[in-house]
Amino acid sequence: GLALGTGARRFHVSSAFSAKVAMSRFEPASSVNYGKMHENINIVRRRLGRPLTLSEKIVYGHLDDPAGQDIERGRTYLRLRPDRVAMQDATAQMAMLQFISSGLPRVAVPSTIHCDHLIEAQIGGPEDLQRAKEVNEEVYNFLATAAAKYGVGFWKPGSGIIHQIILENYAYPGVMLIGTDSHTPNGGGLGSICIGVGGADAVDVMAGIPWELKCPNVIGVKLTGALSGWTSPKDVILKVAGILTVKGGTGAIVEYHGPGVDSISCTGMATICNMGAEIGATTSIFPYNHRMKTYMEKTGRGEISAVADQFKEDLVPDNGCEYDQVVEINLSELKPHINGPFTPDLAHPVSEIGATAKKNGWPLEVKVGLIGSCTNSSYEDMGRAASLAKQALDRGMKCKAQFTVTPGSEQIRATIERDGYAKILSDVGGIVLANACGPCIGQWDRKDVKKGEKNTIVTSYNRNFTARNDANPATHAFVTSPEIVTAMAIAGTLDFNPETDFLTAPNGEKFKLEAPTGDELPSKDFDPGQDTYQYPPAESSSVMVNVSPSSNRLQLLEPFDKWQGKDLEDMRILIKVKGKCTTDHISAAGPWLKFRGHLDNISNNMLIGAVNIDNDAVNKVKNLLTGEFGGVPDVARHYKANGVNWVVVGDENYGEGSSREHAALEPRHLGGRAIIVKSFARIHETNLKKQGLLPLTFADPKDYDKIRPDDKISISGLKSLSPGKPLTAVIKHSDGSQESFPLNHTFNETQIDWFKAGSALNRMKQLQ
Fold it and tell me: In what residue span(s) does the Aconitase/3-isopropylmalate dehydratase large subunit alpha/beta/alpha domain sit (predicted)?
């Protein structure tokens, strides 16, 4: 039998071909069948008659109907059977509320909930964790009991960040996992297809319904040469983001390949895949290799890698496979990068950032350096950062900037404490925060600058949208590797290039930092730390899940109204959004995270960060019934109360960033009918469809300019809504004139049924 990971089930492997592999910490033992995937791949390869990319093998290997499925990259919708589901606590609340209202007794695939988003960084790890447990007691209790009731594993607060836990326990080569967080692709570092989705998609999979994904294009990134010196895995994705931009990966899986791959550690590959979310990619993946095998063995899953070895051909791309686009990067020539401010695709070599910052008036003083997060909190990351901190300490120096350290998991925290890294990082001035998302998602009670005060921070995170980390729109946030963050925190300035510049010790000695070093994995085994996992009980009929009607944190869901069967006439424009509009703009996180389980309360943040083209202001729109200006949610509520339907008009890549489906639930809840934009980010477009809204795009992006904020808009053609057939917008201007233009959509037949039923959940109930 196999004994895998902590607390795993033991069971018998009959033959390598039908080897079923159990995952740790899940009962009943989840199993994947490499043999089944192998059969599916062969069926599809025979049908397509061509070599397959790695991502195609794993995606098509999970088809519901490999023999009959229409497969065309970038065009057809695939019906897939993912192996498991993972949810973080901020999105799990809404996912579980939707699952409860589906009426199903138990999840159909192995699923887990991870408590990582609701812990605010304030003082330090233990204190912040204790405070979070008190403040969020009602939500944690709901998630723990709902998990137990419906057969879901529950990782308690303090266990770590969802993506790190998945890498340590659940990801493995060839698995297909969906997660309710946009950085789920982190698992690609272990050769997995891990895709970020909204909660409604997770509900489909947990309900045992095939999950739909538009057949992804495949972008190949060929790596040659080898990493060395100050260059880190993070620099690969910082460079790729600069090349492909925040929308360049939309609708595609990014597949890394080539001889350079073997010079990157398994956790380094995960870092690269994690931040692939910032280019809009569906996911990213690396081919199975010895670095993954070693990581699996170190994390108690050697038995899985032994079986993976036998199916290695299914876990690497075919020779001669074709990519839709190829980017080539020579790792031997790649230099350390730093991206920002305000967008993760503004890439600069570290050697040039000082001059660029001076030219643009970006503050040079680094106020805070922050390392860790789901992107960069591995044992290797912490070791390399500590190797730099030790050089400073040895010369009597501490960080000039404030310095924070976020361990990715309880296992990482315990291991870096045992091995001395944590002490070095705190001795140099670092504060070790809780094993949680913390400042990366805006859970940071920052005190050192006032709101509106211009300042610079450098982080090893993945995202740096305006006000994301600290709710201060004047904070210039830059993302880079943990090594560069540590060096800049020691020097205290953005124009410090550690490859060429000297530091001055307290005794006046000038010295250069030597390039960072660190072990990929601990020489002793990982220390698992405290046990923070709750198994779902075998028998759960006696478990009660309580939601108080008077709660301001949780609210049971009421079904949305169904389509009335006619065209939408004379709708108001709630807001015409100017420029970048991420899900942070549509439904801010930070202090609003506490309302993620209460749709009506969280709807008070709808679009309060979006810029109104009418007046260049945020959260100030004209109420066309009263003639007065008000906040966006207030005007939406007023329209809804008066029976007036409304739409939002937006710009390019609308809804980029987080997978939070609240950005779709809120407009639906407050009376919205359509979101009309130049282009959408993938997850947000699907989330809007799931909730019964119409995500529509201008056939001609210039038609955006025709719409005036006081227009009335009608959408015709809904009675004959069908795949590939545009709808028509008719706008009536206040001067009595009117014009019309076509609007495109990407609805397929199934999704049209969601729209007619009022939501995907309503449709699921109709079919039961």
Answer: 56-492
Assigned token pair, 580: 């970048």
Residues 418-429 have pLDDT tens digits of: 999 999 999 999
Residue with tokens 């990213």: 284
| 463 carries an active-site annotation | yes
Q: d(Cα 198, Cα 754) in Å, to the nearest integer?
A: 15
- Calculate mean pLDDT across residues 474-490: 98
CA nearest 593: which of 90, 87, 86? 90
Say if residue 313 is exposed, middle or buried (CB neighbours under 10 Å; 0-12, 13-18, 19+). exposed
Query: Which position among 159, 377, 387, 658 bears the catalytic label?
Result: 658
Say how many C-beta atoms besides its own lie within 10 A of residue 219's C-beta: 26
* 446 belongs to the catalytic site: no
* Annotation marks residue 660 as catalytic: yes
Q: Which tokens sit at 434? A: 């809780």
Q: Does residue 53 contact residue 318 with C-beta atoms inside 8 Å?
A: yes
Per-residue model confidence (pLDDT) at position 11: 25
DSSP 493: B
Q: Check if 614 is active-site.
A: no
pTM over 0.85: yes
The size of the chain, in residues, is 768
**Residue 117 annotated as catalytic:** yes
Q: Give the Cα separation of 51 and 397 in Å (integer).
A: 56
Q: Which of 38, 79, 183, 463 is flagged as catalytic? A: 463
**Which residue among 83, 116, 128, 703 is the active-site one?**
116
Catalytic residue among 413, 596, 660, 668: 660
Environment class of 666 (CB within 10 Å of its CB; exposed 0-12, middle 13-18, buried 19+): buried
Sign of the alpha-carbon torsion through 125, 127, 130, 131: negative
**Considering the chain, what percentage of its residues have pLDDT values greater than 90?**
93
